[in-house]
Design brief:
Elements (H helix, E strand, L loop, with lengths): L3 H17 L2 H19 L12 E6 L5 H12 L3 E6 L10 E8 L2 E5 L2 E4 L8 E4 L7 E4 L7 E4 L6 H18 L12 E6 L2 E6 L5
Parallel strand pairs: 1-2
Antiparallel strand pairs: 2-3, 3-4, 5-6, 7-8, 9-10
Helix pairs in contact: 2-4
Length: 205
């Protein structure tokens, strides 16, 4: 008997692979990875120190995809920022940003995160938004995982979001001149039972 859910899953994975192989989609997703990395860390992609969060992009996590990313974090303890795109619009803006981090014996995913930039520039903050950003935020530290800070962001919440959006737009525009291959790499991740399989996806020229 054929499992309908398995057929649907395989069809979705096939669509994701096809979309990720599109050179324009690749370029767009890697531009966002580069821009977000620059805003949060003040450094370019590939300059991360041991123990610092990793920034990556992919499609909306379904079919247990969030558990795969959680397993990476559980195994190596490295935090992961995940920029999610719509598989039907991979050349468009991301649909969300999340953070996977190990807290005690568990891996927690903070979804619906926003970038918030301070007045006068400086590294952006990562703010899980369940409302107005008053609960707390994550701040980057060289050579370390994010530090959680309780309380509201240090300034007007919505003005900081606008500043971050403008900074991100400038970074995206600046990254157009760089070859795609210098912005990062692409990997297809899947699982066979409990085994996670990774294989490289060639980048377009």
């Amino acid at each position: 008997m054929v499992n309908v859910n398995e057929i649907t899953r395989q069809a979705r994975h096939g669509l994701q692979t096809l979309s990720a192989s599109d050179p324009y989609a690749q370029a767009n997703m890697l531009r966002y990875v580069a821009a977000c990395t620059q805003l949060l860390t003040g450094r370019a992609v590939g300059k991360a120190l041991t123990g610092e969060p990793l920034v990556g992009a992919g499609f909306r996590l379904v079919d247990g995809g969030e558990r795969v990313f959680a397993s990476f974090t559980r195994c190596d303890g490295v935090e992961r920022i995940y920029i999610a795109f719509d598989v039907d619009d991979a050349q468009g803006p991301p649909i969300g940003i999340g953070l996977f981090r190990k807290e005690g014996e568990h891996v927690v995913c903070y979804g619906l995160c926003k970038l918030w930039s301070p007045v006068g520039g400086g590294r952006a903050l990562l703010v899980p938004t369940g409302g107005d950003g008053s609960s707390g935020y994550f701040t980057f530290r060289d050579g370390h995982a994010f530090r959680w800070v309780e309380g509201p962001v240090p300034g007007d919440f919505f003005a900081g979001l606008r500043r971050a959006h403008a900074c991100l737009a400038r970074q995206l525009a600046a990254s157009h001149a760089e070859p795609v291959s210098r912005r990062g790499f692409a990997t297809i991740v899947s699982n066979i039972g409990q085994t996670i399989v990774r294989r490289p996806l060639p980048l377009a020229a």
